[in-house]
Amino acid sequence: MANLVRWEPFRETVSLRDAMDRLFEQSLLRPFNGGSDFFRSMAVDMHETDDEIVVKAAVPGLKAEDVKVTLSGDVLTIAGEHKSESDKKETTYHLRERQYGTFSRSITLPAPVAGDKVNAEFENGVVTLTLPKAEEARPRTIKIKAKK
Question: Are residues 79 and 16 in the same domain?
Fold first, then answer.
């Protein structure tokens, strides 16, 4: 004999709590746990004036000679490597979150720059690049002559 089960439409709805749990698991947790390049990239600030573009990149724990900066056309690339400390056989790690390996960040510049006049400075784990704009990219004031 077959049993009849009464259909209850609210039983099939998802609770708000379950929906929020799924949202956080899918959108926030995966990028950090999935071996993404989030921790391997660097924080960069870039601002522009009439005469130059200034880029600041945070590369904590590195020395100036460990960072490589290249400019190819309008693409600026900052690269380097965090070298792993030698593992000690008798050491037991309880927590190991620092990332090791190479990193690279390429940024498209908003205006053409004079590549031969770029200034690079390194202080306290921050690389500051001052890129003078090319003459054709600088704003000009044009005077208007009135006809009599």
Answer: no
